[in-house]
Amino acid sequence: MSKTVEFLFDLGSPATYLAYTQLPKICEQTDSQLIYVPILLGGVFKATGNATPAAIPAKGRYMFQDLDRYAKRYGVPLKFNPHFPINTLMLMRAVTGMQLRHPERFAAFIDCLFKALWVEGHNLNEPATVATVLSQNGFDPNEVLALTADEDVKAVLKDNTEKAVQRGVFGAPSMFVSGQLFFGQDRLEFVREALS
């Protein structure tokens, strides 16, 4: 495996969820490695002056219709989360902590959170809801909460986010192949071509 895809992601983006459902398959088909890089989308938006498309009502309505089209094309479930937007600071610290401290459980961890947000429509702004979701998926909420307070974990997430901005990232999902940036789940065919 000589080719890699760096997948810069934040759980709070429905487009990122769709990319997440497709990238492993693309990497398998192109004999490439998928590298997950957690970032804080709110931090990227603040640094770049960008904002969610949902901030513009007409664009937001269109975006969710378009994402629904892609979900049908990909054959994956997608439900608009009625609690959107989600403040993902604690979630992305937890994701970063799991990647750092428990890499063997990382895939299952992000999978349960992506599904909770974009298939089951849970309000992950609520700590009690997060705790329930984690418990139901075999994770100890107290252990996860401890990860979010870990100074090394906080530093890694901040560093990932700052480096992403320095590399030209302005939103999520963002993918890098051979140093080339691809933004948006609707650019996955370009990612595939770059890997082939």
From TrEMBL:
Coiled coil: none annotated. Its EC number is 5.99.1.4. Keywords: Isomerase. Pfam families: DSBA. One of its GO terms (molecular function) is isomerase activity. The keyword NADP does not apply. Residues 4-195 form the DSBA-like thioredoxin domain. It catalyses: 2-hydroxychromene-2-carboxylate = (3E)-4-(2-hydroxyphenyl)-2-oxobut-3-enoate. Transmembrane segments: none annotated. Signal peptide: none annotated. InterPro entries: DSBA-like_thioredoxin_dom, GST_Kappa/NadH, HCCAis_GSTk, NahD-like, Thioredoxin-like_sf. Belongs to the GST superfamily. NadH family. This is 2-hydroxychromene-2-carboxylate isomerase. It comes from Pseudomonas izuensis.
